[in-house]
Amino acid sequence: MIKNWLKIAFINYRKNWLSTIINVLGLSVGLCVFLLIYIHWQDEKSYEQWNPNKENIYLVENWNSSFGTMAVSSYPQIFESKETYPEIEDATIFNDWGRKKISFGSNSAYVTAGATVNSFFNFFPFEKVAGDYKNALTDINKVALSEETARLLFGDDYIESIGKTVRVEVDDKNYIVTAIYKKPTENTVFKPDFVFMNPYMENSKTQWTSYSYYGFFKMKPGSDIKAIENKISKKIQKEDEISAKKWGYEIDKKNPLKVYLSPLANIKLDAKSEGINKGDKKSIMILLGLSGLILLLSGINLINIKTAQASQRAKEVGVRKAVGSTKSKLILQFLLETFIICFTAYILALAMIELLLPSYNKFLGKEIEVNNLSLFLYTGLLLILFSLISGLIPAMYLSNFKPINTLKGNFAGSKHGVWLRNSILTVQLIISSFFIICSLIIHAQVKYMMSKDLGFKGDQVVQIDFKETKWENDYNFKKYKLLKNEISKLSGVTEITGSIQSIGRGITNSSVAKDARDSTKTVEGTGLGAIDENYLRFYKIKFLSGRDLNWKIASDTINGAVVNETFAKKLGFNPKTALGKEILTGWDDRKKYKILGVVQDFYYSGVDKQITPVVFFNYDRNWVKNNMSNIQIKVSGNDIEGTLERIKEFWLTKAEPGYPFEYEFVDKQFAKTFERFQKQQTLFTTLNIVVLVIALLGLFALSSLLIEQKLKDVAIKKTLGADEKTIVWDLTKRFLLICVIAVIISMPFGYYAMNEWLKDFPYRIDMPVWPYILSLFLLLILTFTVVSFKAYRATKISLVKYLKYE
Predict the structure, then answer these.
(1) DSSP code, position 663
(2) Domain check: are 287 and 251 in the same one?
(3) Dist CA 492 CA 198 (whole Å)
(4) Any idea what DSSP says for residue 541?
(5) Would you give the distance in Å from CA 716 to the centre of its chain?
(6) How far from 142 is each of 175, 178, 179, 265, 437, CA to CA, in Å?
(7) If pLDDT is split at 50, 70 and 90, which confidence band does 797 have?
(8) Are both 442 and 465 inside the same structural domain?
(9) What's the rounded Cα separation, in Å, for the pair 388 and 733?
């Protein structure tokens, strides 16, 4: 029986070879797209799953009305909470300090560093290679090394390095090696090449509202997490009240501070804040949903083409029923035929994934490998489920034919068959229209952001960050001055400036500022804009009123300030009335700053973020000067490459010998803020093209089958004198009507989806009308082109062939 079914299946595949190829290609592309996005989602979900303690470890996140939800906490919030609340079994902190230089003798390594405390390895039990975790980081003179770092410093005898001393650039002192560990090979955001005790904790032990550390709690099993969040929130609120009285700022009592505990196993995708290297869950879920629609579209093609082929197999079904075949056997036969197509498409999809995965990894910046057996298990189950769902409708449809009707040849005109095909085709075109609408609106929003006036000119500006950051004796301040003086002598360097904040990296230091005469007027989240004298001129930032800071006027350097337009508005002034007003800042609260000028708003962060209020002032008049850790250089456009080579030579031989030369153009640095949305645009455009190709291939196959069924009608019309235009229009108008109905139905779905997507943008386009209209015209044109091609071919048939029995 199975052998007979297979013979019938392959006879029909060969007979309808074009529709079979279209089905296989459509399904394979749909499966490929779905599986690529699915494995990306699974890869993101796999972060921290290696940790045996993941179910009981929580990241401490904080919310306030000024900054929203933050991934960082204060030192006392973490460790006093551990002592106060018995539900907390243990606590730790961790900060990624980026790449740092660590040396042993003549050997050195430039690797990632983590600042933490001794409890770190209780939370993150990396496999131990040598040493002792128990006392690995009990004081600020100890360091633990990864196996790779130890090998770089000590060679093949790195196991014997326990007790030896290494030198770390952080404060340029010696550390004793206490442990060597293996970094996890599994996905994790915690992969430091060496860890040491955070040297600045002593200054933070009483500062409840100084959010500086990633904090973690290990909770006792069965603890009420919501209850702990409420207890710590109340404690934070009390400490905030004490701090407000001390520093004289107002508390937003309607929106008190809150604490959230996010499970370690979920922080990659579900942290309430920006988390630690957080993934873009919303985009992944949107893409996963859209790829599911593509898979659905592929299934619709299969269903539609199979039902359209019904008239060709009606007599086969009638004969088989007449000789005793049951309905269940017919259904199984047709399901087997569908499964063969789906399995072939699945194998082809896996081959496509293997081919596309390197490019996909490069696009995502990841190293995903398809070597997980569970992936094949899940996709195998998906294949069976998909085959069952997409095959059951045509199978049920075909098996329900009545022998008496099919043997008389009356099925082709069945209203039920026409209604089913039209309904399925409508769904197909609804999905296509939805994709076109969304793709056009996403393109319009990204274009709007990229064409927005950024408020600064950063062309031909290079930023170089210092690698050494010692705090004593004004080290950074002196180093900046020295570098500025020496680099300015190099040929091709036209101007140099510096600032605490970096364009494209966002505001990293902020506080609460207020009107010196009216303390009720406050501006929370005010950026600390410590700048060199020429900074605003350097970036050609426009003044709306007043003037720039002048280093030759003593009062300007001591208490002069320039503010941005957003700051003036939040304080209740316009650019003109803000001039001359005195303000108090959270970083220097006892000193009054006088507003000398107001500049046009410009973006430190991406244009998807709201502009932060900023106060600009002389960087070298207080403690802020030692935060200066970068230099910004404008190079001549005549010889950019040559100038960069001269800067590199100076840097490697005089500025920071032994370190790699790393720089970034400010324009490119800012352009990185667009990457997420440009990738969304690229992915959505790609998916849109895939959808249209699948839909049009399906439409072509369906229209071919349906028009072939009407060739006798075409022959009769030609005999009666109908011209080609009339025949083509008669054959295509039904498809065009279905297209119009589908686009109208898709419009509210597209509007809702895009309105939700645009809500994330503080600066967004108004919902445009033209994508909906363009979607209609585009689909009408494509539908007419595809169907009319086959319709025109139908007008060239031989009349004798189709009328010889009439």
Answers:
(1) -
(2) no
(3) 41
(4) P
(5) 59
(6) 5, 6, 9, 29, 59
(7) low
(8) no
(9) 33
Helix/strand/coil percentages in the chain, nearest 5: 55, 20, 30
Co-location of 166 and 257 in the same domain: yes
Extract the tokens encoding 334.
């047709």
**What span, in angstroms and rounded, lies between the C-alpha atoms of 465 and 559?**
28
Residue with tokens 């130890």: 150
Does residue 635 sit in helix, strand or coil? Answer: strand
Q: Does the residue 139 lie in any domain?
A: yes
d(CA 258, CA 272): 12
Residue 128 φ then ψ, to 5°: -85, 135
Written as six digits, the tokens of 331 are 């259904």
CB-side exposure of 392: number of CA atoms within 13 Å?
6
- Rounded Cα gap, residues 729 and 787, in angstroms: 10
Domain that holds residue 755: 428-452+667-806
Query: What is the tens place of the pLDDT at every residue in 388-398?
Result: 877 777 777 66
Joined tokens for residue 681: 């645009």
Q: Would the pLDDT of 591 be above 80?
A: yes
Helices (H), strands (E): how many in the chain? 24, 22
Q: Partners of 144 in the beta sheet? A: 179, 195
Cα distances (angstroms) measured from residue 458 to each of 80, 500, 609: 46, 16, 19
Residues 308 and 246 in one domain: no
Residue 85, pLDDT above cutoff 50? yes
d(CA 34, CA 353) in angstroms, rounded, equals 10
Q: How far apart are CA 663 and CA 461, in angstroms?
A: 10
DSSP string, 139-178: STTEEEEEHHHHHHHHGGGGGGGTT-EEEETTTTEEEEEE
d(CA 311, CA 736): 23
Query: Residue 50 domain-assigned?
Result: no
Which distant-in-sequence residues (6+ apart) come within 8 Å of 179 by Cβ?
121, 128, 130, 131, 132, 133, 136, 144, 145, 162
Place of tokens 């990457």: 675
Tell me how many domains the chain contains: 4
Same domain flag for 115 and 236 = yes
Q: Is 455 left (phi over 0), alpha (psi -120 to 50) or beta?
A: left
Q: Residues 217, 121: one domain?
A: yes
pLDDT of residue 486: 92
Pairing state between β 630-635 and 582-585: unpaired
What pLDDT is attached to residue 805?
A: 47
Q: Residue 670: count other Cβ atoms within 10 Å of its Cβ.
A: 22
Q: Which two tokens stand for residue 657?
A: 């010998």
Q: What distance in Å separates the CA atoms of residue 679 and residue 280, rounded to the nearest whole number? A: 11
Of 110, 99, 94, 108, which is closest to residue 48 (Cα–Cα)?
Answer: 94
Q: What is d(CA 178, CA 152) in angstroms, rounded to the nearest whole number?
A: 17
* 419 belongs to a structural domain: no
Q: 326-356 burial, b if ≥16 CB within 10 A, otherwise e?
A: eeeebbbbbbbbbbbbbbbbbebbbebbeee
Is the separation of the CB atoms in 287 and 37 below 8 Å?
Answer: yes
Length of the chain: 806
Query: Residues 705, 711, 717, 721: is their CA dihedral positive or negative?
Result: positive
Q: Does residue 68 lie in a domain region?
A: yes
43: number of Cβ within 10 Å = 20
Token digits of residue 515:
């009107």
DSSP string, 8-74: HHHHHHHHTHHHHHHHHHHHHHHHHHHHHHHHHHHHHHTTTTT-TTTTTEEEEEEEETTTEEES-B-
Q: What percent of the chain has a predicted confidence (pLDDT) above 70?
A: 87
Both 698 and 791 in a single domain?
yes
3-class DSSP state of 464: strand
pLDDT digits (tens, 9 = 90+) for 194-223: 999 888 787 777 888 778 899 999 999 999
Q: What is the pTM of this model?
A: 0.79
**Residue 91 and residue 612: Cα distance in Å, rounded?**
33
d(CA 278, CA 281): 9
Amino acid (1-letter code) at residue 138: T
As a whole number of angstroms, the distance between CA 221 and CA 175 comes to: 37
